[in-house]
Amino acid sequence: MIEMKNVVKKYPNGVAAVKGLNIEIKQGEFVYIVGPSGAGKSTFIKMMYREEQATSGEIKVDGTNITALKSKEIPYLRRTMGVVFQDFKLLPRKNVFENVAFALEVIEQDKEDIRKRVMEVLKLVGLQKKARMFPDELSGGEQQRVAIARSIVNKPKVVIADEPTGNLDPETSWDIMRLFDEINSGGTTIIMATHNREIVNTMRKRVIAIENGQIVRDERGGDYGYEF
């Protein structure tokens, strides 16, 4: 699903955020990306959906070399992926239904198909009764559930999550992680950057540790492994 070969990312100030990454992530895997602040985790994540462009090397997503994509092609790449952020990034003037539907409207899906699919994913995340509410009427956990629903409404093969529980209390964080686990059990690849030691140590998925822009550990059934 994701393949990186000799990937380097240097910023204009000369800082090398990642240095010669080589990694393969297969369809259906659940992978945690861990490491100290400033290690290169966010750059690693962002390169997968071309928020950041690699300076050199090759990144393939589902067989497509995304490092070779032109700027106008990037939105089409992102329509095949789900991305979940720590700060939710919901549209404040659209209600729950509209926030999730928006991802299908931009690809001009049939209105009735949109309605059915949106209500299907809202039921999955437990928010079908709050479809007409607005983001500021929801708790943080509910807003993150909307963001997750939006990320999976177009049935992507991979969901990329950058610190999705970072702003949530422990109980809500576990609710969100159980939801991700359920999505993964349906065959969707999950790639998640996180600082949450307890979740990583309890769920025991594949762990990729990054330090100073390099992969220092890649372990299936791994633990968090850091003391901060």
UniProtKB/TrEMBL annotation:
SUPFAM superfamilies: P-loop containing nucleoside triphosphate hydrolases. It comes from the Bacteria. The keyword Nucleotide-binding applies. One of its GO terms (cellular component) is plasma membrane. It holds the Pfam family ABC_tran. Residues 2-228 form the ABC transporter domain. InterPro entries: AAA+_ATPase, ABC_transporter-like_ATP-bd, ABC_transporter-like_CS, ABC_transpr_LolD-like, Cell_div_FtsE, P-loop_NTPase. One of its GO terms (biological process) is cell division. It is found in: Cell membrane. It is a peripheral membrane protein. Keywords: ATP-binding, Cell cycle, Cell division, Cell membrane, Membrane, Nucleotide-binding, Transport. GO terms for molecular function: ATP binding; ATP hydrolysis activity; transmembrane transporter activity. Belongs to the ABC transporter superfamily. Part of the ABC transporter FtsEX involved in cellular division. Homodimer. Forms a membrane-associated complex with FtsX. This is Cell division ATP-binding protein FtsE. It comes from Kurthia sibirica. The lineage of its organism: Bacteria, Bacillati, Bacillota, Bacilli, Bacillales.
